[in-house]
Design goal:
The protein is mainly beta and 189 residues long. It is globular, with a radius of gyration of 17 Å. About 9% of the residues have low confidence.
């Protein structure tokens, strides 16, 4: 086996291993069969983004969001975490973070309510898939971590941009129904 073939084999094995280890649940027809809630959950020095923080950022029943609709009905960047600042919540329609994010880690949390395809994000042109996605269940005002037997209604997508400290962030997802394209942007200082 040539060196190139060995390197290709190692890379493909690594990609397969990491794609399998990021799976935190067994799902059938959008229903949780079993779940390992904390598998590969990103944190900033042990500090995790919480459901309570998420609920404080969501609209207060101003809009009607149906968990039974086939596609995405809400898509938003909800938090930016960095080694220096910890988790900083992002308000709806906020265009830039208020403080400079520095340090080794830079994590971004995106909330998606409704079915769509895996979200993607880019920071300064560097595109990434979600490093981790968590499943949420319930209506928008009563979201919680899914339990076995519940249908998934929402996701928290975590993106890891460690090594970068600032720049233009763009996140996108494609919905299973109209409108098909969803995006949000934020300038991280």
């Amino acid at each position: 086996m040539s060196t190139l073939q060995r390197l290709t084999y190692i890379m493909l094995t690594g990609i397969l291993f990491f794609s399998l280890t990021t799976q935190a649940a067994t799902i059938k027809d959008d229903t949780i069969i079993n779940i390992n809630r904390f598998a590969n959950r990103p944190s900033l020095q042990g500090d995790e983004f919480t459901i309570k923080a998420l609920l404080s950022l969501l609209p207060n029943n101003k809009y009607s969001f149906s968990p039974h609709k086939q596609g995405i009905t809400y898509f938003e960047i909800v938090s930016v975490g960095s080694t220096q600042l910890g988790w900083i919540d992002v308000a709806q329609s906020q265009k830039a973070t208020e403080f400079d994010h520095e340090g080794e880690q830079l994590l971004v949390v995106v909330f998606q309510y409704g079915k769509g395809h895996s979200a993607k994000a880019s920071l300064n042109g560097l595109e990434k898939n979600a490093a981790h996605s968590e499943y949420l269940c319930g209506e928008l005002s009563q979201l919680h971590f899914c339990q076995v037997g519940e249908k998934i209604t929402a996701w928290l997508h975590y993106f890891d941009f460690s090594g970068q400290q600032h720049g233009h962030l763009n996140v996108t997802s494609y919905s299973n129904s109209h409108p098909f394209y969803w995006s949000d942007t934020l300038y991280i200082q």
